[in-house]
Write a structure and sequence with these properties.
This protein has 6 helices and 14 strands. The chain is an alpha/beta fold. A 6-stranded mixed sheet has the order 10-11-9-12-13-14, with helices on both faces. Strands 3-1-8-5-6 form a 5-stranded mixed sheet. The longest helix is centred in the last third of the chain and has 19 residues. The chain is elongated.
């Protein structure tokens, strides 16, 4: 399936039905009185988060979504039926924003979450609503209210705990296939990954985290160079970035340190908050570096990058060092999850006293 993480659609809730003007007609009852019913409300447009979807491709080819209008009111005190609602299934992590104003309207962050994108119009009043002691034969009615209509932008940001960051051909796809259940396309040429791949890493019973493999970044990505800039948004919801560095590039003239610095610069240009996220170095392809040269080469890279955070030496191909990396990542992710859901401690000195009589 083609991966699509952005789409523009038009939605329209149903209009309300019109009220009815009608009078009761029965034999021997000349003045039966008004009995015109109200119109039915228009159908709503709902959106529901579905974890079985991972792309917005369905909305790329279906741009217009319109709910049914309510039925008109009828005589004999009959109200019109409400219009049928429609429910749009969207991937978890979808952001819905208004095209004209750019305002973010909704975010679908939980499986099964349902929100109302557009509300249907209320039905109009029939003439039985206007009956009174001084107006016994009203001929007034009101039309149905129009339903909400808007053009919205759908933007998908994948929900992953860990994001893999690096140049093309750094071994990110091999790494995600080594530690998770994901099976991305792997080849010996750059830009093999054309869309994000998600994998669940099983650490132990009821212990797991989600990792995202994105297309490789190159210098100038924040301005549109390469493919990675299209998917930088997917890193914004991660808790941890793993910066994968190729320690054995094909071309001897390539400097891994210069490439790493360029990627860090692109992150800073794209989003300062993304740049500030926790980032660990993962030095990959060490199986292709002579054993006697590994320590010196690793020390040189870390020193030139002036990196102060955790550094992991691995080989995604042979899975050397991967288990240690997985355990450390899980502990970091778990600690952040606990911190995010920690109860807020309130100083009792500033707790408001209950009101008297409460």
């Amino acid at each position: 399936m083609k991966f699509v993480d952005e789409a523009f659609i038009d939605i329209a809730a149903g209009d309300g039905g019109n009220g009815c003007v009608s009078f009761r007609h029965e034999k021997y009852k000349e003045f039966g009185g008004p009995n015109g019913g109200d119109g039915g409300r228009g159908g709503h447009v709902f959106a529901v988060a579905d974890s079985n979807l991972n792309t917005l491709v369905d909305f790329r080819y279906s741009r217009r979504h319109e709910a049914k209008r309510g039925e008109h009111g009828m005589g004999s005190d009959m109200f019109g039926a409400a219009g049928d609602d429609i429910t749009l299934k969207m991937p978890v992590g979808t952001i819905i924003s208004d095209v004209e104003t750019g305002e973010v309207l909704f975010e679908l962050l939980k499986e099964g979450e349902v929100i109302t994108i557009a509300k249907g119009g209320d039905g109009g009043f029939g003439n039985m609503r206007f009956k009174s002691a001084i107006n016994r034969a009203p001929r007034q009615k009101t039309p149905g209210w129009p339903g909400e209509k808007r053009s919205v932008k759908l933007e998908l940001k994948v929900l992953a705990d860990v994001g893999l960051l690096g140049m093309p051909n750094a071994g990110k796809s091999t790494l995600i296939s080594a530690i998770s259940n994901a099976r991305p396309r792997i080849a010996d040429y750059p830009f093999t990954t054309l869309h994000p791949n998600l994998g669940v890493v099983r650490v132990g019973p009821e212990q797991s985290f989600v990792v995202a493999d994105l297309p490789g970044l190159i210098e100038g990505a924040s301005e549109g160079a390469g493919l990675g800039h299209l998917f930088l948004r997917h890193l914004q919801r991660t808790r941890l970035l793993l910066h994968v560095i190729d320690m054995a590039p094909f071309d001897d003239n390539i400097d891994p340190v210069a490439q790493a610095k360029a990627i860090v610069g692109e992150l800073k240009k794209y989003d300062a908050a993304l740049y500030e996220k926790p980032r660990w170095l993962v030095l990959n392809k060490l199986d292709m570096v002579p054993t006697e040269e590994r320590a010196a080469r690793v020390k040189d890279v870390v020193k030139r990058l002036r990196f102060k955070g955790p550094v992991f030496e691995i080989s995604a191909l042979t899975r050397e060092g991967c288990e240690h990396l997985v355990q450390a990542v899980y502990q970091q992710v778990k600690a952040q999850q606990v911190a995010e859901h920690a109860p807020v401690v309130v100083d009792p000195r500033f707790t408001p006293l209950p009101s008297e009589g409460a």
